[in-house]
Amino acid sequence: MRIATTVKTMLSGLLAVSALLAVACGAAATATPQAPAPTAKPAATTAAATPTAKPAATTAAATPTAKPAPTAAPTPAKPAGKVIMMNGNWARQQFDPLGGDNEGMLYMRLLHGYLISGNENAKMLPGIASKWEVSPDGKTWTFTIRKGVKFHNGEEMTIDDVLFSQVYTHGAASLPNTTISTLINQIKQTEKVEQTGPDKISWTHKSPMANFAFYQSELFGSQAPGVVLPKKVYDTVGRAGYEKAPVGSGVAKLVKYVPSEQMLFERFDGYYYQPANGFPEDRRLQIQNLDLRLVPEEATRVAALKAGEADIIESSLVSRKQIESSGGRVAFARESSYGVIIFLQCWETQLWCNKKEARQALDYAIDKNLIRTQLYGTDAMESKGWTLVTPSALGYSPELDPYPYDVAKAKQLLVQAGFPDGKGIPPFKIQTWAAGDFPFLPEMSLLVADMWKKNLGLDVTVNVGEAVGIREKWQAWQLGGDVMLRSNEGRWDGGSAINGAYGLQDSRTRRSDDPVLRQAVKDGLSEMDLEKRQAAYNKMYRALYDAHYEVGLGYVNLPWGLSSRVSDWKPWPLSAYATALWTVKLK
């Protein structure tokens, strides 16, 4: 039985109250800044990270290896002007890589320089590291660190800063000091970090990690493990002091910070990514100041844009006409975020979702096309790919596209699972929150709940909570039998997320305990040949797709509202948060 008429009627009410939902949920979704506890100064290396003899012969990865020849620096035009950007969520509001994640990647990318850079085609490029290579067994990666990179305080970056940063981020001593699941998994997989030459740092892992270079790059959009911290600053003030006055080597330096209100950044003239240092383009800001403001409510952000009080805002297609009527326009970041339903703790045999047929049934009962066309619009959302495997991602093929809407098939699968007409499935909740990178998650959750009720007779309610709090309960395994409807950042290489979800038995974000799936992930992530990795990843993804511990809902092209003052900005695809801000130009 189709429920389009019912849901369309419901949608009219949902859209009418969307502003109210944004107010109610957006405020909750803004993390309260936490005063980080000082941590012990990390040792120069991990327990096993004492310098060793020259490492075994390595095979070159598919990356540039030659440093470009320096060219004479052109005289740049003096930058001027300020751009005010309004965001809906700043996550934890921490600048240290042990705390900066998700929505915080906006300001992390501004503040910090990365070992590996990237471009709009999701291609990894030299950054602070001039080249990188991997050993034949895929376990040891070695990066060569360039000279001449400067921190915002004028100090020149040294190999000691890089070693300190990577031991700090990947060393076992930091395990108790982070709650970021990807970092926790990475720390557990790292055997040692060490200096292996005058300008070389090596990481050795317990198993091959084909995705490690991407994980250390600016293209990795969830966390910032590839940033370099100033060792002298940490030695002097510790982590708590650093959070009060952070120093990085990125495109802009932080000159004013009012928690949960404002982050004022200033152009860093000494940013390393410029032709004077042998790079092919100048990635310094073309404006003098970037003024970030935290404004959870979309209606308030749109009003500020129309009134000339903001230049760039997180927006949605619902606001497109208002933005364009005031002389502004909308720019899209393609494949920026994906929507996913995760069945929680379903490795536990007593839970209803332990049955694969039950999980598949709930997928068939969702009319994804209705959600796409009526709630988001065809410009903003596409129902393609499986969770993080969007069409531009490594490993994608059409076989990974979402299930079609088929209520009869859904009911048949419920019978096979032992739950005819939904009988035997206890009441459960959809856990969700308001997210700046994927508008209308609460509204989407209400639609999905309504479809499951009407199509399958399930007793399901929606809990709209605060993002950090729900994630913490999930990772503490307190939500077994519920489902989580969330967004996550688009990415070209999803290896680190998949390893945490299916490859590591003790991961706090795991979806299953199936040894067959663990082996599939191990096989996929062990393929070091880039030309063969597409097929290896695709095989891995198709095994996980069939297991159906997650339901892919499609991806969004995130719209950014631009005022009439902004003449140009080219945000990168496959990134949920603002990127390539050096391309912002004012009229």
Describe this protein's structure.
With 587 residues, this protein is of the alpha+beta class. The chain has 2 domains: 59-304 and 572-586, D-Maltodextrin-Binding Protein, domain 2 (3-Layer(aba) Sandwich), CATH 3.40.190.10; 336-558, Dipeptide-binding Protein, domain 3 (Roll), CATH 3.10.105. Helices cover 30% and strands 20% of the residues. The chain has 17 helices and 20 strands. It has helices at 4-16, 18-29, 105-111, 159-170, 181-189, 212-215, 231-244, 298-306, 320-325, 356-364, 368-376, 407-417, 441-456, 467-475, 495-503, 515-525, 530-547; strands at 59-60, 82-87, 116-118, 124-126, 129-134, 140-145, 190-197, 200-205, 252-258, 262-267, 289-294, 312-314, 329-343, 381-382, 428-433, 460-465, 483-489, 550-562, 566-568, 585-586. Strands 2, 9, 10, 11, 12, 13, 14, 15, 16, 17 and 18 form an 11-stranded mixed β-sheet that branches. A 5-stranded antiparallel β-sheet has the order 1-5-6-8-7. Helix 5 crosses helix 15 (495-503) and helix 10 (356-364) runs antiparallel to helix 12. It is globular, with a radius of gyration of 24 Å.
What would you say about this model in short?
The protein is of the alpha+beta class and 587 residues long.
Can you lay out the helices and strands and say which pair or pack?
Layout: H1 4-16, H2 18-29, E1 59-60, E2 82-87, H3 105-111, E3 116-118, E4 124-126, E5 129-134, E6 140-145, H4 159-170, H5 181-189, E7 190-197, E8 200-205, H6 212-215, H7 231-244, E9 252-258, E10 262-267, E11 289-294, H8 298-306, E12 312-314, H9 320-325, E13 329-343, H10 356-364, H11 368-376, E14 381-382, H12 407-417, E15 428-433, H13 441-456, E16 460-465, H14 467-475, E17 483-489, H15 495-503, H16 515-525, H17 530-547, E18 550-562, E19 566-568, E20 585-586
Parallel strand pairs: 2-11, 2-12, 15-16, 15-17
Antiparallel strand pairs: 1-5, 3-4, 5-6, 6-8, 7-8, 9-10, 10-11, 12-18, 13-17, 13-18, 14-18, 19-20
